[in-house]
Amino acid sequence: MRRRNSSNASRRSSTIRRRSENLRFDEFGFVLTKRKDKKLHHRCHDYSYPQLSPVRVKELCELLSYWNGASFLCKSQIERFIRMGIPPSLRGRVWKCLLTIDNLRDTSDFNYQKCLLEVRGPLVDLGVSEYGILSAITTLSETQNDLGLNQQLPICSELRYSADDITLFRQIALDLQRSFPTHRSLMGDSPEAIEGQAKLFRVLIAYAKYNSQVGYSQGMSYIAAVLLMQLGEEEAFWALTALLDKPKYLTQLFDLSLTKVQHQVKVFDQFLKHRKPKLSQHLESVGILSVHFVMPWFLTLFTSLPCWDSVLAVWDLIILHGLSAVFRTALTIMELLEPRLMEMNDEGVVLPLLLRVPVDVAQYSVLVPALWNTEVQDWELKCMNSLVLDESHHGPNADGLPPVTENKMNL
Questions:
Q1: 207: domain CATH number?
Q2: Does a structural domain hold residue 12?
Q3: pLDDT of 191-211, one tens digit each?
Q4: Are 240 and 274 in the same domain?
């Protein structure tokens, strides 16, 4: 049976390779889909982001060359450029400066390359390669099942992996399958895709080892993949570390149990009631809970939006302002969708609209100006957070949100 599966996998691989040779990609690396497949992949390739003049580009380069993260002038200047629109070729440098990647790496005792060497030992013992991690899912699953039946590892002092290692490797490998399957750096089995998948695997494994308290959880693969599209591998690792570990950013979204993000969904639920009481009441009457659509938005940082230039502009703002920009983006989308949502009374129509935001709302010329015109104050979020904490004292799920499991997320 295993030989037949291997043969089938080989044929599928050859088919994918032949198809990939004829594919065309847009400027951000996403495959140009046929019109009939656009709804399936929910990806728009008609970008409308502004082009900076050569003079502005030169000014931005000069700013980045003497960047000082502690300088108010530098921060105000970079915000001005982000509002105008960061050129794709300079976005990686902007993110590096804002996240202070070099300083984080230089002041840490963690050695990325040494960590990877330590990880490769368990992989070798399991017969798994980082360059074939997707094809190793079956092997990891069988090993995990065997351990579950035997309740313990084989008695062998030379084994360099644990049951936790197998669980971690398998979980990341499973998530790699659904992380941007139409991006050239991750789709198919071209040399570029194999290398891209290996890089993403290494970055995620390294972070799980770097911060074992947080480890790996759903959504991280999307965030790390976006960082790898803009930065080198080790730079992407330190950028992920900055986003997940600095209180300003996503510390309050990620943990192993998804408890933190569920709390932030409740905060947004209160925030929506405060800002948009009629819309909030309408969604509740239809049977739509914030957890069903806000959690995927938060965990993947809006990478499900169909217009990639808009996604990157959202990320620019999040990397500039932190968690408050995540709430700001969610509120902006809700405001843009409000006229349509208020006319809908069927849960089966409302939820798909929220999970797959239409192109006419997500396009740069609509979403980004609206985003800059939307204000979210820190004191508002603190007040909403206090409300949620007060409600939690009355018992679990006092606000009616159901407990969320990984399978229910379907990211």
A1: 1.10.8.270
A2: yes
A3: 999 999 999 999 999 999 999
A4: no
3-state secondary structure (DSSP) of residue 209? helix
204 and 119 share a domain?
Answer: yes
Tens digits of residue pLDDT in 222-236: 999 999 999 999 999
Neighbours of 63 (CB within 10 A): 19
Domain-embedded: residue 252: no
Q: Would you state the pLDDT for residue 337?
A: 98
Cα separation values, 41 from 181, 194, 205, 306, 407, Å: 9, 21, 28, 9, 21
Please give the mean pLDDT across all residues of the chain: 88
Domain co-membership, 149 together with 197: yes
Whether 102 is covered by a domain: the verdict is: no
Average pLDDT of span 369-396: 89
Contacts of 130 (CB under 8 A, 6+ apart): 120, 123, 198, 201, 202
Indicate whether 295 and 229 sit together in one domain.
Answer: no
Residue 406 is predicted with a pLDDT of 46
Number of domains in the chain: 3
Name 46's Cβ contacts closer than 8 Å, sequence gap at least 6.
363
Q: Hey, which residues does 44 pair with through a beta bridge?
A: 307
pLDDT at 11 over 70: no
d(CA 15, CA 4): 17
pLDDT of 252-286, one tens digit each? 999 989 999 999 999 999 999 999 999 999 999 99
Give the integer Cα–Cα distance in Å for 116 and 112: 6
The CATH number of residue 346's host domain is: 1.10.472.80
Average pLDDT on 10-38 reads 68
Cβ neighbours of residue 382 closer than 8 Å, sequence gap 6 or more: none
Expressed as residue numbers, the domain containing 226 is: 112-245
Is 85 inside a domain boundary?
A: no
